[in-house]
Each structure stands twice: as structure tokens, then as C-alpha cells.
Amino acid sequence: MNIKKSILPFVKAGRLAILLACVAGCNKGHLEAAPPDGGEGHSGQGPVWLEQGWTRAESSEFYLKNQGSQLIPFEWFIHLEQAGSEKLFRSPENMDSLGFIRQPTSRENPHELPIGFVLDDSPDAADIDPSLSSFEPGYVKSDFPKAERWLGLTCASCHTANITFNKTTLRIDGGPAMVDHESFLVRLSDAMRETCDDTAKFERFRTGISGPEGLFDTTRLKAELQSYTIHLEKLVKRNRAEHPYGFARLDAFGAIVNEITVAALRIPENHQVSDAPVSFPYLWYARALDYVQWNRSADNAIARNVGEVLGVYGKLKLDGAPATGQFRSTARIQNLDRLEQLIDSLKAPQWPESVFGAIDAGKAERGAKLYSQNCKGCHPLRDEQGNYPMTPPNLAGKQFIKTRSLRPQEIGTDPKMVENFLFRKSIPGVLKPYLPPDEQAKDKVSAGLLLKAAVAGVIKRFKDETGLDNQQMLAMAGGHVPDPSAPPNIPTGYICRPLHGIWATAPFLHNGSVPNLYQMLLPQEQRMKSFFVGSREFDPRNVGFLTSSSTERSFKFETEAADGAPVAGNSNKGHSGPSFTQTKGEDGNFRDFTDAERWDLVEYLKTLR
User: Fold this and answer.
1) Of 208, 178, 196, nearest to 77 (Cα)?
2) Which tens digits make up the pLDDT trace of 340-384?
3) Is the peptide bond preceding residue 507 cis, with omega within 30 degrees of 0?
4) β-pairing, 48-50 with 168-173?
5) CA–CA distance, 257 with 264 (Å, rounded to integer)
6) CA Rg, the chain, in Å?
7) For residue 73, which of 209, 256, 195 has the smallest C-alpha distance?
8) For residue 537, what are the CA distances in angstroms to 85, 162, 166?
9) Which residues pair with 81 in a beta bridge?
10) DSSP code for 259
11) How high does pLDDT run on average in the chain?
12) Please, what sign has the CA dihedral across residues 146, 188, 508, 503?
């Protein structure tokens, strides 16, 4: 695979400096301003897009493409008020406070919904059998909302970023969003509960939906709202951990597994707290990697995305048999494939020197040497031909960028996410026949196997219903095909991938526990144990976001509780010591980076694209 050349291979003396001078001269051409109404920006103007290989139309398609997520009836969301206020829940001010990015009103977005919030009015949205829904036992099926239109979320809500600096807003497509998704759900369920319980609030809600003439049955609407509020409250409770995630993090795996093994299988005993939040990974070049996810657990593109939809409010039927609707879901697999095609052309953003200042060529060149000596064994670089280290051709003749993983014992980082994936066991219920033969006799099996079985069933049903052939399905899988002779991929560690565009992806480590690149290069005992997260204002020196308390959005991330005990899932330790925060000295022994060397590395990391 030949991915477009960049400055990465040029680490020899003099060559990096020449290329950096070229970048400085042409970098303004990589900035593209949106029209005046193009979205949120400190100056009141729209954001500035960095050149990432997408047209504005392709960015918009990524923001608005429906995946099959169905969180709440659409008209409910449009007219729902905030708890404790008569202001609409969807007001830009409320959504801004949660970190979601404004979009302007348009024909495709008449209600000014944030990026990643979409209408699902697909033809079968109104034909949902209540038994299809992933609800725990006790839900009153007859009170399932009879809605033809649903509000759902897409991957863009968590994988689109705005970065601000000196009243300029940069749009980073595919970058990790500074959103607090957990608080969004808590506020939404609180707003629905108050609407149920407050007569005046419910009346405004009913009038907004049905008009003053009362086109809908008030009693019916109240029953639906009450029942669905209980469902949403259960969802929040099911996935809520002792310590809030805050901005830019989510335990997506924990939520997905709970939705499948607890809600869809209707086995409450399978519940486990979702207490391993991770940062939202960046998407550029993801389709070219051999594996993705923080624990390097997924390769098949369409399977990964179907699992994501099922965890983000897609609906799934697991009971019965295929002939009676088993594995029917709301996942829009062809739309997911289109999103994957878009991601395939997405490039890493280049450091915008006209906004943040020029890269120091001398520092970057010295940093390049340090990177080659200490970092590229885990985080590879392109060679002189523009190629990354690649896997051998698979059975379909495809090659991928080769990644590796390091176990928590090797890298020293927080083990919670890896451990939850590896050791979580669940009762298989009706999924037992779809497990490998040697697993079917067990009372409990790996939750990851159940996730795999559910997703495989959804995809097979889609294939059978659409009549797509194996080659078409292989294309949807991104060319990934299992090799029966290869050893199984067991996700025992955290992925090491190329660091192109890393400057735009703070906070760092898999769990977002380190605020900037400079802190990453400090010995673990010297790193900040707490900092505020939520600001989009960039710190171009340390390369991360401002860490002081912000009146706009602010959450205090802490590695330790008030009593000094470590917060599970929040450790900022690891990635420290030899070849992480140390290099070999003249005597051949490892020593800590000097401060000058840290700044040289930070400067070099800005160049990766």
C-alpha cells in the first residue's frame, strides 16, 4: 500500500529542515474557511477546515448520515425542555455546554441539531415490533412509542473536533470530540422524568408535538413518555460508573456489551459496571490498519461498525429464530459502508503554522533522531517510498499497516479496559447455538464472544436479505478475511499505531489521563495527577488543551480520589522509562530525557501527518 508521502521519512540531517521550510511556505493553502454561517467559532464566523482530503459536502455527509441509532422519538427531542427550565433541551447553549458542535440551520438540518445528531425516518422505522427493542424485563411493550421518526447519533458526534486558538476555530474531521456523552444521557433522562411529573411542562411538551388542537391522544402520549423514560433511566443506571467519565471519554465497550448481554438477551445477571472509559480514537487511516480499537481487538470494518450502532441506541432482536426475526436490527449497514468509504479517504491534519506558529526546524530535526532511536519500534514511520511496514498479503491479497500491542505489564498503563474485555463472562442465553462448539457447554462465556455472535448474526441476516455476494461483503469488511491457519488475535494489550496527526488528539494515553504531549514525555511520577478537561482552547507549546478551570465547559479529571486511593480506570502511569521517557546516554545506559530533548520531541511530533 502506498499512502501519500509526507515529511516523516526525512530524518537525515538537513533534509527535514528543507521540508519544514517548504511546509511553512505552503501551509496557508491547507486552511479553508467555512461560509459565514458555517458553524460555531469564537469570532462568530464558521470554523476553518484543515485540508484532510474531504470536500465540504463529504464532511456534511459524515455528520448527517443515518446509521440506525434510535435514541428517542424525533418530535419528542425537538420539543423536550431542559430539567428545571422552559428552555429547549436541544438549545445550542445546552448542547454547547456538553461539548457537542453546532451546525447551522439548513435544508438537511432544519432544527439546528449538533454534529452527529440525525433523523432516522427510514421506511422501516415506523414498523418496529416492540419485541425488537433491547429493553430489560418489565418494560411495557404496549407502551412502546409509536413513532415514525427517531433521533439518533452517529460516529461523527464522538469523532469530530473543534480546536480554538486566539478566536480562530479549526475543524478536525475524524478527531476526538470534546463531548461529555455520559452527562448528555443523564440530563436527557432527567428532562424526560420532569416532563412526566410536571403537569405544566408536560402540557407544553404535548402542545409542541400535537399543536393546540391536540392531534395526539394525551393519555397515550403520557403512557409512552412514562414507559420510555423508565427505559432511558435504566440505560443510564446500567452504564453509570462510580466516577464520572467527563469530557472526551466513554466506556463504549462496556455499554455495547451491556446492551447485548443484559438488555437484548434480557439477562440482568450479565450486568457489569462500565468503568473503563477510553478516549475517542482518531479515524484517519484507520481503515488501512490491520487492527483497530484501543485493545487491538477489531479488524473487520463492517462488524466493528454494526457493534458500534448496537451500543449507541440501535435496536436488536435476539430471541426467536431467523425465520421469526432473530438478528433483525435497525443498523443501516449500507450507510455504515458509505461512512467507511469516506473514512478511507480521510487524511491526518497538518499542523497549521499560520494559526499556531511555525515549527522550529532545528528542534524538529533533533526530535526526529530521538524518535527514530526510541519510538518508531512501536509507532512506525513511512519509508522513503511513503510506505508503512505492512502485513503480508492476506487470502484476499490485501495488505494493511502493521500494528502491535503492548500488554499492561509491559507498558505500565491502566489495565482496566484490557481486563474488562478479556475477563468479562456472561450467560449466553439464546446466543449459545451461535458460539464455537467448545464454548457451547459452558454456563458463562466471554462477553466478547457474545458480542461477536450477535454482530455476525445481524450481518448474515443483512446478507441474506440483500442478496449481496461474498465479494461484495468482503469489500464491506475492508478486505479483511480470516486466515484459518493464523493464530487467533487475543487482545491482551493496547495498540501501538502510527502517530500521524497526533497533535490534534489530546488528551493522551488510551484513557485520556495525560493532558498534553509534553506531559507524556515526563517520568510518570512527575505528571499532573489532576487537571481540568473540557476546554477546546489549544496550547500550542505543550500540545494539548488548556487545563485550567473553564466557565464554558469544565470537568476535573483525577487519578486519585479524595482519600488518596487510585481511581479505577484513571491511572496516568505507564509509557514511562526506557524508550518511553528515557533515551540511551553516551555510556550506553538509559537516562531521562533532558528538558531540551522533550521539547525537541514535541516539536517533531507536530510534523507527523
Assistant:
1) 208
2) 999 999 999 999 999 999 999 999 999 999 999 999 999 999 999
3) yes
4) parallel
5) 10
6) 24
7) 209
8) 29, 9, 8
9) 88
10) I
11) 89
12) positive
